[in-house]
Amino acid sequence: MEASTKKSNKNKITEEDLIEALKKIAPGTSIRTALDDIMRAEMGALILVSKEGVEAVCEGGFRLNCKFSPQKLVELAKMDGAIIISDDFKKIVSANTLLTPSMRYSSKETGTRHKAAERTAKQLKGITIAVSERKRKITVYYGDQRYELEKTSEVLRRATETLQILEKQKERFDDLMISLNLLEMNNATRMSDVCNVLQRIEIIKKISEMIKRDLIELGKDGIIVSMRVKELTKNILNDRELILRDYFPNTYEQTGLILEKMNFDFLIETSNITRLIFEETNDQPIASEGRRILMKTHLLEKERDLMMSYFETLDKLFNTNKDELLKIFKNENFVDSLLNELNTLREKILTGKLI
Questions:
Q1: Per CATH, is 153-278 categorized as 1.20.1260.110?
Q2: Number of other residues whose CB lies within 10 A of the CB of residue 330
Q3: Euclidean distance between CA atoms 324 and 349, whole angstroms
Q4: Measuring CA to CA, which residue among 246, 263, 135, 238 is closest to residue 180?
Q5: What Rg value do the Cα atoms of the chain yield, rounded?
Q6: Does domain 2-149 have CATH number 3.40.1700.10?
Q7: pLDDT digits (tens, 9 = 90+) for 110-133
Q8: What are phi and psi of 27, to 5 degrees?
Q9: How far apart are CA 328 and CA 17, in angstroms?
């Protein structure tokens, strides 16, 4: 029974699989050019991506086995029946084919073309594409997954609006990080300060995931939005890990998983986060292990650990002097260089610069 369940889960088409399929038909690809041309011509089409077992659902038609081109696909769409293309989207295998999927696979669709597309996708656990001439819609089926492509202009508008929200969240995150740097340097951090930063990181992660789906559908048309998203989210996962390591050194991975499972509604209240990850209802002082801030120096990991073990808190470390550091490192040139780095770092933090 267990082996059967594992096999079933392995064969199940997930949303991630659908996203990978959408990449293959994004704007800029030959197949998408053909689909858009078919829709503009107010024609319908039924396209099946060939895979093992395809013969079981096909009847009639004629074999082509020719190189794929948008123009050829548009011309073939003028005929009845389905067009079968290769799984690498480089060849048109056959056309004018009747799809005969098993009726035991359910369909929520109403049109004959869409019913055949949905049932075929479910039976083969493959990809079918239906273009509706009446509704002027392109629907992609992949196993049990269904996705209706939207107009590029509409997807781009939505992605741009979401990007603006992401930019505001990133501005807020930068402000919180500047504040956290100052608090950590003065050993004045409280649980709520840490949770405020982690809250913003999780919100940014979730928003960027929302844009990611639109960017896949946009293909080349979303390249500018994609570049901006990468710019806004650069290093944010690294900051997240370092913060978790600073405040949850022994359980940072488990704490990260707890944060990932939080939805937007739960994340809105910082007290919810404090209660779950710190297991506290009251806001308490908490000290950083200093890993994140000391990563901004040229110290090796063992040297950072040595310093934090000696000074215990960042405020003592930043208020140290040459004689104290010589007790740890015994090298005057090294200590002079380190003092210079610490002073530069302190100045940036005190003047409210991101480090």
A1: yes
A2: 9
A3: 22
A4: 246
A5: 28
A6: yes
A7: 889 999 999 999 999 999 999 998
A8: -50, 140
A9: 54
